[in-house]
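User: I'll paste a sequence; please echo it back and then give the predicted structure.

Assistant: Echoing your sequence first, then the prediction.
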Amino acid sequence: MKLLLLSLSLICTAFAIPKKPTGRIVDCDSPEANDAALEALHYINTNHHHGYKFVVNQVEEVHVQPETANGEIFYVELDLLESKCPWVSPTPVENCPVRPREEQAVEGDCKVKLQKQGGNFTVLGVSCKSKPDSAENVFLACPTCSLLAPLNDTQVVHAVDAALLNFNNGNNTVHFKLHEIGRAQIQGPANIKAQVEFVIAASNCSKEEANAALDSCVALTGQGAYYGSCAASVTKLPGAQDEEIDVQCTVYDPQVDQTGVPSSGVPAQPSVVHGHFHHNLRHSSLGPHSSESNSAEKLLHLHHPKTPTKRSLGKKHADPNALVRPLCPGKKNFF
């Protein structure tokens, strides 16, 4: 019995969360924390091949393990917001406008493990999830605004098909195929209007070839592949025979990485999302280190309990009861 109690005591001690962080303290609003956040954001956006690019809204937590011969290990928790730039857009994320709250912005939460060596950060592990903002927040900002609709809603799918057909009919270059639906909202007292955003992919067919044999048209892959993004509204007024279709598409040049070869991570097949309102970061394959995501999340909580780290606003030997402000979480960049 004594042996059993001793064994249990050793196990509990091994997994006990330290009362104090074992590494140095980093301010969530410091340049160092910002550099770590930007490296993590670049990694996430580079490996997230659905939906939209994200921006950093807030650095929520930072913890640093003591330095070793391999540098320091950072555990960082980030609050992200969806931008208006589709993942295929070449626009740098710092130039992407943030999705406003009235459009039911999507929020991301990521726990990232990074290594800092020689002043440079490298991502070692990522664990992310995302969700649309609450209906309450949307209606507080805009009482008449619509919420997100399921991406496979029949009215949404019809609106995307009608908008893409309209675009292809007026396009004299190549025939484009649907790659994925990004987001959708259905508006009006009788659901008369669907607003949709979607990604298109260039096919191997010209407009004439598509008219003659549409089934033979497939999306281009490899070095010849290129994409575009579209925003459209499709309105069917009561009693009207035809729909009103307004579609605007931007076609991008083929995207290449630093080696000059188009990104091999771009999915060749359309993304089909059943019953979901957005492309959740949880379901995204965040590169070769995503397999470490669970350890990244567990280690963040192990080494940095959810207790705000505070500092004095007074002099060096300030009264312990003096006003203090937390080092973390950092300030919000948007909302």
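The radius of gyration is 24 Å. Confidence is low (pLDDT under 50) at residues 1-20, 258-262, 291-296, 311-316.
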